[in-house]
Every structure is written in structure tokens, then in C-alpha cells.
Amino acid sequence: MAKKNRNVGIIGIGQTEYSSHKEHQNQAEMVNEAVRYALEDANITLDDIDCVVHGNMELFEMVFQPDMWHSLGSGAYGKDQFRITTGGTTGASLVCAADNLVASGMYDVVMAIGMEKLQEGHTTGGITNMADPLWFRHLQTGALTATTATMMMEEFGEERAKKAAMKYRILMDKHACLNPRAHRRFGLEYDQADDLMNTSPQLVGELRLIHMCSQSDGACVMILASEKKAKKMCKTPVWIRDHITVHREETFNNFGIEMPEMTHHYAARKLFERNGIKDPVEYFDVFEMYDPSAWWGLDWAREFLLLKDDEHIKLLEDGEFDLDGKLPINPSGGVTASNPIGATAMLRPAEAAMQLRGDAGPQQIKKKVKHALASGFGGTLWSVLMMLEKDLDWQEVENG
Amino acid sequence: MKRVAVCAVAQYKCDSNIWQKRFQGMLLDVLEDIQKQTGMHFSEEGGVRSIVSASDDVFDARTISDNGMTDVLGAHYREEEKMAQESLNALGYAMSIILSGHEDVVYVAGHCKESQGESRNVCTNLSYDPFYGRAMGLDYTNVAALQARAYMEKSGLTEEQMAKVVVRARQWAEKNPYANATEQVELGDVMYSPMLCDPIRTMHAYPVSDGAVVMLLASEERAHEFTDNPVWLTGFGSCMDSYFLGDRDLASNFALKNAAERAYKMAGVKDAKKEIDLVEVMDCYAYQQPMWLEGLGLCGDGEGAKFIDEEGPAKYNVNLSGGMLAGNPIMTSGLYRMAEAVLQLKGDAGERQAADVNRAIAQSTTGGAGQFHTVVVLEK
Amino acid sequence: MAEYFGTAVEDIFNTMEERFLSEGTLDVDVTIGYNISGEGGGNWKVTIKEGTLKVEDVDGEVTDCTAILNANAETFVGVTLGKLDAGEAFSSGNIKVDGDLTVLVAVLPKAFKPFKPVIKASAIVESVEERFRPEKAEGVDIKIGYDLSGDGGGQWTVVVKDQTCTLKEVLDDDCTVIMRMEAQVFVDLNQGKLDGGTAFSSGQVKVDGDIGAAGQSASLFEKYVAEGAAEEEGEELISLKCVPSINQRYATGPTMGKWFDGLKEKKFFASKCPQCGRTLVPPREICAQCRVRCNEFVEIGPDATVTLIDVVYYASPDPLTGKIRETPYTALFMVLDGVSRDESFAHDLNPKDIDRIKPGMKVRPVWAEKRTGSYKDLLYFEIAD
Fold first, then answer.
1. How confident is the model at residue C234 (pLDDT cuts 50, 70, 90)?
2. Domain assignment of residue B296, yes or no
3. Is A179 in contact with A363 (CB distance < 8 Å)?
4. pLDDT at C114
5. Residue C235 has pLDDT above 60, yes or no
6. B44–C contact, CB cutoff 8 A
């Protein structure tokens, strides 16, 4: 990676509440709500925005080029605009794009908008439509699979794996209960774990309804500005240090006898290497992870944090992923709580940035938060990983 | 600002019915062409690590359709972003990836197979809000017809002038090995072709087209690794107009004028009339060529019709590729426009080669009646 | 009787007969058990068979049904009325289902009209103070008595004096006017289902005392609106339902074409990477890892070794047909004989083998009798004994 042309700061964040019921708004109105919150948060007006980056999945709501319609609420009128969609990773791709567009010098202030109104379409059917129409479509059911659960039970024993996945799930719910914008807030308690483990309806194998992410409506907006503008416009800009995107081939053919290195692991390895991060658990103060299910969330913690064997399970069991632990995961409640797909991966850096600013609200981590990690997931195990910093004081790595 | 190099372009020959190939297969052919031209590779050191694709889920009839492209794009364990918009915007984004320092080699790939779906109008109808516009039956063709009427009113554009645009497009298309509609026509053929959507006649509209384009971009420092004859990307701009047709002056070129102004400013172009040598516009319908040329500032406001009679298109080397009228897929037209401009600036345009071309522009549009426009400035 | 959101659990079961849609259940044969815990709960067994319905109030926990729903009374009523989110109740474990979840998702919406809460006469009378319009009661000094007989009936007196309104749960002797009727008639009148004049003329309503005061009383109160109905009528929130579709003509291209051609002959073909030797199943034009074209085809399988097993319980509608698959079904990840070690292939398992299948087992394909070169040619895999 060459040296970044100029630094980029996050100066505004706006989110709607996430819920399964937004009949009171159409798509453009929902976008507008988040846009207004972001402008208020940044204390600027639409006049200050040079360019808009928009993203959601056309076939989830069945609208062709929805940015045209959404322009009624997005504020794109009279402005430059891009539209990027990469499945689940869309929200993260939008933030990466906004970062690149500002860093390039082409635009000073860019507004990224991720949205989805999943209740207006059929989500599982929409995801199934990802598959090749001639061969795989008849075999797939959305993003549902228990392969990770099966493999974890094999590796750590059925009892420990099931308990750990449920502990992770309940931890996420505890965080969600603090977050006023989270969609699903069940109020689960740890003493329910054994009951839920055995009685929550099974979707696929040991992937149960309670483990799986929600289908939500909502929009998330982030405003990014050049270092000069960010410092002028905002008291507490959050800096985007680096990001990496790793896609994977079309098919889920990776369950053979030998398993390849996982994209998440590859992304983390490359990103940490070029930024000189030796021990990510030590370095980062918060990790907002795109965790589509409790099983994946727990398993992927090992990949993203470059952990070995059962280190991730031990960290969970020891409470180190709790809000007062060594590396809190998903103070927002994560994706099992809120999942408006085109925005979901943006909720991760949005929450991470609020944690760095110290104004995340009831779910604010108490100890000092200086370094944050945020991930996005989509496609056939696509990964986006992003590093955010409170201060502009990191060391560039030679030839990093 | 630093410069970004376009090292090479490769195009798939457009056709109205490439039934025998998946869009993946089409793209792979052009990607291999680029690799042959430039020696581009995908190794982690020095290879391409970043790809910007341009396609559309509705036309591909596939959710997150770039997932179906990963293998042929070479995007396995690499960065790939999908521009779900007209393809020229992918170029703008790729440009920013290089200027930001994030990556120094990026390639852009666009594809679209209009023939796969039963009707492209049904696809574009889905662009309108489900409550009103969609129920009204709006699509990009009938909305363009409203704009055509408004523009004819404003500029005095005649049937004969529109026919002239089509006849000239076919003449140039015949010389372009990548064009779709190359059959030669006369004024009368166009003027008396069946009415498609009044005042747009069948021959005023671009034919259903399938195609794919790839181009390789690199930072100024690394361009020489791939070509000794780069073309420089010096300006980019885009702009969004209002969504509801009733909120717009359909003949005003609001979005295009803004997009052009931004691209010119970035490229340091002060007087487009004097500084532009070649133009590629996305003229989906015949009336759009004079109207877009007006929006690009090559003639005065409301003077596009007169510009046709004054041989303005010939003077500015407009659409020597045959243009959109000769048939490119709607989501990929911008890259076809770019491809022609790049070949002309490189001096590789064969029979179509224009003399003394130093600066060119490529334009594309998305949305009904040009709701959104994109303009790129290229230099030798 | 305990009520939740103004509705008792038994109201829901008692109205099943009238809400039943027999034409929607001609091909259905299921029994659904309900174990509703907490105050007002109970146990019910609902049998739907070929267009007929039987609802039984049973003693003790229901067992032995196609599906059994377990919930507390508040959750059950809330979800039925749409006051609580069904998905969330499932996810959080407040509703638990034993047996085939599909039945509830697929059968119930076809079998019953939605439950509408029963409006009680008492609820209407008890809301008079809230509905009172003091501005219309200047100089009015009357006592209106209600004597409602039958199920849900009772006696009340509404006192209007000095522009205030008070409700008493007795029938005073000195009422200006007393209206006597069946409680259900009273409800229908207030719901606008029955016309006042008609009810009076036909003798359904009897008025003792000052008939003029009875007429006047109507203007003193706002119209009664059932809980929840107010918001729906107040705001114009329209939800537009449509299924946009565009007919497609997908190309196989030569590579997938080879695969489909092979299926006709009960053969599997993989494309082979000239660089790493990896076999791609189904064949693809390029090896994603090496980024080189794979022009060579090799025949593989047809038997395979299972690596991972997914048992699917969630019934997802087919995006193309809208039909819901039968569950549970089993998806297999397997390695076909002769392929490279990192390449898995996914397909379904013959439902008869679902209890026996284990990783490491050998399986073989089962083919359709008539094969046309499409995904339908390969039915599923089964254990190769």
C-alpha cells in the first residue's frame, strides 16, 4: 500500500432505529431520516456535502437503480453520486469508498448512505437469488447453514460449543438491550442458556432461530471529510487508518477434505502486517464485527483476531468480550440484533466511531477507547476489515 | 492533482443476442485481451489487487451479481467493488482508489446482457416508485419521449435533423469492429421508421445490446509497466437531478451542465469549445446527441438543433465509435464511450482515427430522461 | 376470566369455527396442539382434515400432534392479535414449537381468517367518561340507565350533570331513561352494525322513561372505537402488494453446457485447472485460485464421500415458484470420487436416509427417469450400501 494521499475523518453519523415495522415511511423517507440525523450530528447542512455514496440491494426491494428514487430523501440532488453494492459488505464498501473518494482529493466531504427495507421484499428468497440460476439456486436456502456449528461441535465438543455459542448470543442481546436503536432486544439472561440451547426452533442443524440474525428495516449514514475540513468542522473526528477488502470465489465449495485459509483470517493477517499490529487483542479497544449468527460470530472472532485453538472461546468464557472486558465485541448488539442488510456493515464502523468519540450512549465502553476494528461480511465469505483511530498518532510502517 | 493513466482498453463486440455465452464468459474474453496487451497479472506483489466492476442486479437477474463474476474477474482473495450504476462511474471510483494512495493499479470491468431479460422496459419501469410512477407505466423509453418533445420544442429539432444523427452514427459504426448496428440507412429510412413512443421512432432508439468492456488504470509512477502510450484521466464529474419529472425542466440539461463543469474544473478546461477535440456521448435516442452536446457546452443553450446542420458533430469528432445509437448495453455504455476516446487518443482507432486529438471527453447517463450524468476528461 | 389486550385465550379458540376457511385446507391433514400456560390458559387440540375442523378443549398437556405450540397466555394472545411480534416471540423462546414448525407457517394462514378481538359491552360502557363531550352538555341534567342482559351484560347508570359525566355500576331507580337490550345488540349498535331505529322498531331495544333523552344522549359522547382500530383509521398508511417479475433466458455457456449434457447420460464432468490440477464441480470456465482457463474436462464420481451434513428445518419458499419445500430435508457437502481434496459438492439427500447419514459415508446419485439436461435430472444422493 502506498502512503495515503491525505487523512480522512468521520465527522457525522446518523442512524434510524432498526425495526421490523417501518410502514410509516417509504424508502426515500427512511433514508432522509438518517441523513438528517447525520447532518445534525456533524452540525453541517447539505450544502457542505460534495458527493453522496449510496448502497442497497436492488433485488431485496425490487427497485431498479433505487438511488434515483431515494434522491428525494438522500440529498443527492445537484451533487456527485456513486452507488456501490457488494451484498452484506455493502455498508463497509460504502465507507471504504467514501474514504478513498475523500483521500483522493476529488471530494472534500462525502456522505455514505446504506439502507435496506427488508420487509418490502423476501429476504431469504432474495439471498437465494445470489446463486447461479441454472444450478445452485434450487439447492440453497438464503444464508442459512449449520456447517460452522457442526465443525465447532466437532472441534470443541458438543456441550462446550453449544454453551459458548449461546453465551455469545446472550452477551449480544445484553449489549442490544442497552442500545436504543437496536431492533431485537429480548432481555435474555444467562440462566436461560440451557433452555434456549435445546428448545429454540432449529433452522438448520444446531443453527437455531435464536442464533440467527434479524431482518430489519433501517438506514445508516456516515459523513467523511478531509483532515483539514474535519478538524475545522468537528471537535472529535474519528480517523480512518486503513481498510482491506477480500472477496472469494462464486461457490461455497470449501467444505472438502482440506480447508483453505479463511478470507477473514487473510484480511486480518494482511491488514495487521502492513500496519505493524502484532497482537490485535492487546491493541484494539473495541471490535464491531458483522456476526450473522452467534456461531459465526464466535468462530470468526478467532479468524479476525488471529487466535489459535480455543483462545476465542476462553476469552468469551472469561468475560473478555463483555463491555468491561479486554476487547469488547459489538457494544451495538451486532447483527443478531439489527440487520438492515445494505446498512448492516456500516453500523459496524458507525458504532466503533461513536465508541471512539465516547458518546455511544448507554452502551459506551467505560475504559478509554483509542483503537477500533470493524468488519463487514457478505457474498460467499467476503470480508472487509477497517481500522479506526481516535488520534492521528499512528506509526506508518515502512513498505507496509 | 496527480494523474491517473488509462493503460489499455478491451471491448467485446456488441450484439443484440449473445445467447450462446454467459456474461461471465464475455467478460473473461475481454479480460484476457487486456492481459495480453499489458502483461497485467494478479500476484500479490505488483499485480492487480483492486477491481471495480460495473453491472446491475436487475439486468443480471441475480442478487449481488458480482458474486457470479468473482472467478472470471480474478477477484478471489482480492478487493473488488461493484458499481451498481452506469459503468462510467466505476471509472471515477477507480480513479479515486489510485489518487488516494490505497492502490496503484486498478482495473475496471463492466458487463450487461440486455437480451437476457424479456424486456428492458420492464427493467427500467422498476426504477420508478411502486406507488405512482410504476403504476403509470413509466420506463426509460417513454420518459425519454417526454424529454424529446420538450427538447424539440426548445431547440426546434426536426425529424430530419434526428434522422441525420442516426445516418451518421451508422456510417461511423460500420468502421467500428465492436459496434452492433452497422447496417447503412438513409434519411428516409429513419424518418419513416415505425413510431416507438412518440416522437421517438424505432430507428431513433439504440438496439437491444449485449457487451462487456475492461480497462486497466495505473498511477503515473507505474503506468509504464503496462504501456508506453498511456492516456491520462484528468477530470471527472457527475450530478443528480430531481426524481419526479414534474420537478424538472426536462430540456434544461441541469445535471449534465453541472457534471461537465466539475469535470472541466478538475481537468483545468476553461473553454470546452476551444479545448475539446473529441467527444463520445451516450445517445440512447437520436434527440439526445444534440441535447447532450449542448449540455457539454459545445454549443449554446437551445442551439443543439442548429449545431447538427452546422456539422458540429463532425467538427468535434462526436461518436466516431457510432455511439450508443449503434448499440451498447445500457449499463456499460460509458465504458464503451471511454474505450473509443482512449483508442483515439492513443492513435489506435484504425479506420476511424481522427487527426490531432489531444483532449477528449466521454459522457454517460443513468435514470429516466438523463436524471444523472457523468463526464470524464481524457488527455494524451 | 383473565384477559390480555382485552381478549381472553378462549375467545380465540371459540371463534375458530366461524373463522375457518375450509376451501384452503382441502389437501391438509394435521393436528395442532396448544399448551397455553398462565392465568386464563388451557389446552386445546385443533384437527384440520380435508376441509374440516375440530376444536377440542382437553384436560392436561397436549401431546402427539403434528405440531404443538407452547406459550404463556399473554404471549399467545398478543401474537394472535398482532400486538407482539411473532418472529421475536419465537426467537426469544417465548413461543416454543414441538414438531413441524412448517404447519404453523404454511397451514394456519390458509385455514383461518385473522382473529378480530371480541368487543364487550362492558368495555363500551366503561369508556363513557373518556368519550364524554362536555361542550355538548351545557344545561343537560340526565341519568341514563343501561340494563343489558345475556352474555357480557350488566347494569350501569351514566349521570350527566354540570357538564360532567360519572359512571355507576348499578341501575339507579330515578333514571331519566333506561335502555334495556341484549348485550350483543348494544355492541352491534355501537359498532354501527345495527341501526338504532330498526333495533327500536323491532323491539330489540326497549326504552323506559323519557324517549327524547335517549335520542339526545347520543350526541353527548364520542363514537366508541375499539382499541387499536383508531390508529389504522387515522393514518393513511397503504401497503402495496405486488410481485414484479421479468422472464429470463439464461445462457449456460459451453462450460455449464458440458455439465448438463453429462447429466443426461448420468455422468458428472469437472473442469480441471491446468496449473494446480484442481477439479471444479460443477465445471467453471476458470480456476478462481490460479486465474487460468480450464478447458480440459474429466469425468468424476458418480459416488461421493460425505464431509458435512446440514439438516434443514426452516421452510423457505422457492424464489421462483413461491412453493415451500417439505422439511426437514438434508443438504450434503461431499467429495465426489476423483476430485481434488479441497473441492466439495453440495446436493440433497434422499429423505429416507436422513436418520442414518454420517460424515465419511459413501453416497451415490439417484437420477430422474427422464433426463433433459437440467438440474431436475439429479434427484438426490443416497447412502451406497
1. very low
2. no
3. yes
4. 84
5. no
6. no
